[in-house]
Each structure stands twice: as structure tokens, then as C-alpha cells.
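Q: Sequence in, structure out?
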Amino acid sequence: MEETMNLTAERSLEIITEQIERSRKSVSQDVGMTLLISGFCIVGVAIIVIIGTLLTNNWLFYLLYMLIPVFGWAIERYVKRNKPKAPASIIGNMVDKTWQTFGIFVVPFFVLSILFNNLMLHDALLFDNMQIFFQNRIEPVRIILLMMGMAVTINGYILKNRWMVWCGIIGGLGGFFWEAFHVTQTLACWFDMSVLNAITPNLLMAIFPFIGLTLPGWMIVKHQK
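A: Exactly. Output:
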């Protein structure tokens, strides 16, 4: 009787493990496509903003970043229109909650940082002291890239995908320290390319999301085929 119960318990554990692995594979494929689409959307918008600001010197192009979730949602809906939806599971729920948390932090932070910077700029111009602005402004790009890297890395651990883990680390930490140490501005001074200073945030939003989102998404989709 005891041996039968042990065998039943072992079989139940095997079934649960198999279900988790199947769920992880199914969610991985779905997440891979989402990362790929999100990465391409961010890179595409960053390129448009770079071209637009260089040609027109109009900073309103930066508002296009606010439309990235809309672009991503629309494209993902179209791409996945004929594909079965990933079944509900603990793995899928953990991944969804990770990205929901990312959105809850990033969107308000991005909006509030822009408002704060505009306020600081207004005060600096009012008192004819731009040092006020440069000392107190918030640089949201580095923080957003860091949070993006954290979200991708956490998803990588959940899905047991080393590509996501390493790309998340490189994309997040790489973007943060690149911006924190003003690498682009330094290169611009060395090679006398002042135009880089004007497009630095957009370059970072094109390069590091490609590493942290597009690349692991492409590898996952390719591996699942």
C-alpha cells in the first residue's frame, strides 16, 4: 500500500513537472515574439525620432515614444491573429506580472521626468542660470534601460532561457553605464561629431533595446521553429 502511494506521488510529481515544462515552452514562444515585436517597435521609433529631429529640429518627435505600446499591441495582434493563444499558467502569469510592473513604473516615471525637466528648464531660463537645469534634470533613458534589462533578465530566469538573461543584463547595465558615463558625448568630442550629442538618447534607445529585446526575441523564435 505504501509503495503504491509512493509511486502515485512520484507519478503525480512527474506529471506536474511535465506540465510546467510544456507551459514554459509555450509561454517562451509567445514571449519571444512579443520581445521581437517590442524591440523592433522601439528601434523603429528611435530611428524615426533621430531623422525627424535632425531634419526639423522639432523635439515633438519625442512624443512618438508614448505611442510604442499602441504600435506594439497593434502589430502583435496582427502577427498572432491566426495563432492559438498561450494557455493560462503560473509561468505565463509570472511573465505577465513582470511586464505589468515594468509598465507601471516606466510610464509614470517617463512622463513625470519630462514634466520635471521642463519645470527646471523654465526656472533656469527665468533666472538666467542654466546650471540649475543641468544639476537638477532627470535623465530617464538610463533608468528606463536599467528597468528594461531587469524585466528581461527576470523573464529569462522564469523561462530558463540564458539568451534572455544575458541579453537583459548586457542591454540593461550596458545602457545604464553608457549613459551614466556619457560615452557617446566623449566619442563625439574625440571624433568631432557634435551631431551625436543631439541624438544620444535615441541612439541608446535604438542600440540597447535591440540587444535586450530584439536579439533574445529573435533567438527564442528561431529556436522554437
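The two ends are 45 Å apart (CA to CA).
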